Known about the structure:
Distance between the termini of chain A: 31 Å
Number of strands of chain A: 14
CATH architecture of the largest domain in chain A: Alpha-Beta Complex
Structural class of chain A: alpha+beta
Largest interface: A-B, 86 and 86 residues
Number of domains of chain A: 2
Oligomer: homodimer
Strand content of chain A: 15-25%
Order of helices and strands of chain A: HEEEEHEHEEEHHEHEHEHEEE
Amino acid sequence: MTEPAEWGLSCPLPHTTGDRILLAHGEGAGLTRRLIRQLFLEAFDNDYLRPLADAAVLPPVGERCVVTTDSFVVSPLFFPGGDIGRLAVHGTINDLAVCGAEPLYLCLSVILEEGLPLETLRRVVGSIRDAARSAGILVVAGDTKVVPRGAADQLFLTTTGIGRQLPGCDWGTHRVRPSDRLVLSGAVGDHGIAVLAAREGLGLGTAVSSDTAALHGLVAALVAEGIDIHFLRDATRGGVAAVLHEIAEAAGVSLVLDEAAVPIHEAVRGACEILGIDPLYVANEGKLLAVVAEADASRALAVLRRHPLGAEAALVGEVTAASPPHVLLRGSLGTLRVLDEPTGAPLPRIC
Amino acid sequence: MTEPAEWGLSCPLPHTTGDRILLAHGEGAGLTRRLIRQLFLEAFDNDYLRPLADAAVLPPVGERCVVTTDSFVVSPLFFPGGDIGRLAVHGTINDLAVCGAEPLYLCLSVILEEGLPLETLRRVVGSIRDAARSAGILVVAGDTKVVPRGAADQLFLTTTGIGRQLPGCDWGTHRVRPSDRLVLSGAVGDHGIAVLAAREGLGLGTAVSSDTAALHGLVAALVAEGIDIHFLRDATRGGVAAVLHEIAEAAGVSLVLDEAAVPIHEAVRGACEILGIDPLYVANEGKLLAVVAEADASRALAVLRRHPLGAEAALVGEVTAASPPHVLLRGSLGTLRVLDEPTGAPLPRIC
Lengths: 351, 351
């Protein structure tokens, strides 16, 4: 930064913008290059990124290259258990993971609002660096744009992940069939409630933390044990309910979820009750729902529970042939009721 | 859309939001799925996108996979000669092209402001479809986020491109050396001035149109003719000046640009004079600057001029060993002056 630090209080000159993002940081010239070298390259340095060319040249990815992209607009940027940077890395890795891919490379595009404190950007970049390192994924390409004050809310990220699909990972809704079992890797609702509480000042303190986590290890464990996976998805926006509806619609089957079997942390349950929200509709960022062959269900559960990210895994339901396709909730007395498709849950900007 | 169209003027009920983007379009549930199926899949349909899984599974890309990412925040969204959609596709293809890569796949992430007319989104998606089709690149993965009114300005795009590097394309600043020639593929400044004029209502009408174009054909022509390319870049943000400074800094050489040789359209020159802007600092979206071996310079020029996108190509300067590294402008009388590095040109949101 050539910009002077903020002036002392006794200085008669007007305050400068200090250590903040300027429009010039996004104009492709000197300040952009310095920002890229001193912040992004410093954090992510590797052989593919270092040339800072228009594009990165990568070695062959393998027989089946898997690619995914996601924008992140979460508000606030920082919340108990994570921040937008961790979320972006984990979210992208998880989209690769549920397709059976080992995460390899990440592209990172940043849209910044003029005036954003550089320190905020530094914290987010640090989070991205740490999350990427611990998952073994390399940031190989990036872009930075700056928009004038008021044209964006602080900072948006878009991450694109590239991975290599593990052999034998050909699951999908086409393989879902009646008698399959539903296995959930842990408690639901933590992420959405943590973000909502931080945003609305609900005063939950640290009682609820985001579950943001990279799930590729969990998937690799299932694959390594030869579990007959028919479908796999991380239950993000729209929660578990959205995933179940997606399966029902695409596979033309019905799904029965055992209400009492779904793990929900007490603090999340309490917050949901106060807010009038069903935790089944609340976003998670570190939970996957697996549809597995009936014969492999208990083994799948055991594999998940052995992993630190699956300690609270549970068998939560099954696939049936009931027609038309429905998502049903089985209550404690065995009664079935329809779990409606989420259409407009009032939880914007949770990822 | 289940939303009713706007009510007639005589209706006593309050106006509805009509055919506009709602927060629920970004929540991962029913409305998101309908938007994706009815708009995005309809426009981009192909075997890789169609499963609408978390990630797309692609066939092997080849020996050297090239990847690039860019966000687009241009304002206004539509301008003479193009719009944000065309720009995103072309910009991403060009980043692949200047690395010698044949463009193959595109990922598209969209951040929408609540209240955006669906028709605006439809037009942009149509542009993306047309630009992608004519360049032969497939949209294989995507994401949609919606932020509340005021948290973004209408619509931002992030595109990630994946390509296959052509054999023998190992140029870069490490290959730039004294006596190399600078070849520019056409007139400069059109894009930046077209956007600025549209935004500020400068009344240039259609006198200046954006030069947005996909340059992979131009690069392929140079490669096919065996031109000894030492460096290649599209002159986007910061204009030709930014590219020259980047080369000088990275290669440790000086560059001399012949002021009179740089093609500039009359209307652009006039607008720049009125605005007090140097066209060398203005963004282009369909021009490349090639550094080629001296012996190949006139052949490179001929190859470019044979291509519709290179009809106005020109030899514009050369590389020298002058130290310290400088970018110099040679005036009509042969006098040399320093072309300063752009640091904060007042042209935000031109891409």
